[in-house]
Design brief:
This protein has 3 helices and no strands. The protein is mainly α. It is elongated and about 50 Å long. It starts with 6 loop residues before the first helix and ends in a 10-residue tail after the last helix. 14% of the residues are buried.
């Protein structure tokens, strides 16, 4: 897979996942919403570390800035 996520995109996804973790850890988030947001947070972390978002591919999106020679 090619990298299609820019640095800002990866940073925002990581921060969102950390935010969900903090809300869960403090007891603010619970039940079904916690489960759903937990799954989304894990997906955000995995895509951030991989640098590739599978949903961007069929949509033809990329937040990565290409380096010019």
């Amino acid at each position: 897979m090619t990298t299609n996520m820019g640095t800002l995109d990866r940073l925002l996804r990581t921060l969102a996942a950390i935010g969900v973790g903090v809300l869960y850890a403090t007891g603010t988030l619970g039940g079904i919403p916690a489960l759903v947001l937990g799954v989304v947070a894990v997906a955000f972390l995995l895509t951030s570390f991989a640098g590739t978002c599978p949903l961007y591919v069929p949509l033809g999106l990329s937040t990565r800035h290409e380096k010019r020679a």
